[in-house]
Specification:
By secondary structure, the chain is an alpha+beta fold. The protein is 16% helix and 39% strand. It is built from five helices and 19 strands.
Length: 380
């Protein structure tokens, strides 16, 4: 159990209200990372688990139970190597518009951070004779590479014992607990993908926790992925903190930063000023940046009072613009405080829902692709 902390500050320990602001604001620059070292290391150098996998060929799907079994294998291997179980097993469950999970990998790094890959494939089932299997084949062709990426991150974590955060910048008083790369391919429409980085504060309070999600999302239309005539219409990301089981949820305004194909040359400035606290007095913080992309607009559709964050990547470009026919993306982040999770007395608890979604169109018809993810903690 975490050590109690009453929330008062003495100049050396920041309070949780500040974490809700600075932790989330810092996440806008994250693009990857090796995870943070555990505060309780064994005498010997900690080791990560092996990466355990499941692959379902021939149009079959990998069930939730099979994915849970893969995670249990990784947890047992971590315990065998380190003499202790991971503090919890962070994971997510998937629900998609029409695709099935056809590739899955999971492992723990040396710091107990869960690392996962989820590959989802779908096809236009209205014309069975035209089914190509390309989406599934593409996921399977790249699966070994994704597994190797997880293995490499685990190996790197075994050589890093600093609390400074390694390659993850600007995450003061936050540590990573989980990362998951998700790819959803549907022939002939396009691809929706996101890497989810999940952080929790390191204040050590039994009063509550601050969680943060950083979820860079990308959208590739059928024009570039499959040679079809389906183009980008819009993309969305949802952080649904209102799905948390923990109670006393306090949601921060989120942040975002575009990347990928942008187009245009005029500069637009966005600024953010937030005012929300850890169940008590308010604090304020701000961040701003400028970028050049008049053809792509980020619309913040969040509602902290309803306990969710959501954003739309909106295209204002002509039908033949590069942003319609090539990869586009953005990098949303948000944070929320809630009651403390205690793995010694609690079972599985949902922390947040997350959804990545896109619409692709050929001018005559459109297709929405979405994947909903339920992020949760459960005892090892």
């Amino acid at each position: 159990m975490k050590k109690g902390y009453n929330g008062d500050t003495d100049g050396t320990q920041p309070d949780r209200r500040a974490i809700l602001k600075t932790g989330a604001l810092g996440l806008t620059s994250i693009v990857g990372g090796t995870g943070l070292a555990s505060a309780e290391l064994n005498q010997k150098q900690p080791q990560g688990s092996a990466v355990y996998t499941a692959k379902a060929p021939g149009g079959a799907a990998i069930s939730n139970e099979r994915r849970r079994a893969v995670r249990r294998q990784a947890a047992r291997d971590f315990e065998r190597k380190n003499g202790r179980a991971p503090a919890a097993i962070p994971a997510s469950e998937q629900l998609t518009s029409s695709g099935e999970v056809v590739a899955y990998a999971y492992g723990f790094d040396a710091n107990g951070v869960g690392r996962s890959y989820v590959g989802i494939a779908g096809e236009d089932m209205t014309e069975p004779q035209a089914e190509s299997g390309r989406a599934e084949a593409q996921i399977h062709d790249q699966f070994d590479s994704h597994v190797a990426d997880i293995s490499s991150a685990i190996e790197t974590s075994e050589q890093v014992t600093t609390m400074a955060g390694g390659m993850v910048p600007d995450t003061n008083n936050m540590e990573q607990v989980f990362s998951q790369k998700l790819e959803y391919l549907e022939d002939p429409y396009g691809t929706v993908s996101s890497t989810f980085y999940w952080f929790i504060d390191t204040l050590g309070s039994s009063e509550g926790d601050v969680h943060a999600l950083h979820s860079p999302a990308g959208y590739e239309p059928g024009t570039s992925k499959y040679g079809s005539d389906y183009k980008n219409e819009w993309g969305r990301v949802f952080h649904r903190w209102n799905q948390s089981d923990m109670g006393n949820t306090d949601v921060d305004y989120g942040q975002w930063k575009p990347y990928g194909t942008q187009g245009g040359s005029s500069s637009t400035s966005y600024s953010l000023s937030v005012s929300a606290g850890w169940m008590t007095a308010s604090v304020t913080a701000g961040i701003s940046w400028s970028y050049s992309q008049p053809n792509v607009e980020v619309v913040d559709e969040s509602s902290p009072t309803s306990e969710y964050n959501q954003w739309q990547l909106k295209l204002n470009s002509a039908w033949d613009d590069d942003t319609r026919e090539n990869f586009i993306g953005f990098q949303p982040s948000s944070a929320a405080s809630m009651n403390h999770y205690d793995s010694s007395s609690m079972g599985k608890r949902t922390i947040s829902g997350n959804e990545v979604k896109a619409q692709f169109s050929n001018g005559d018809s459109s297709r929405n692709l979405w994947s909903k993810n339920e992020f949760y903690l459960q005892p090892a």
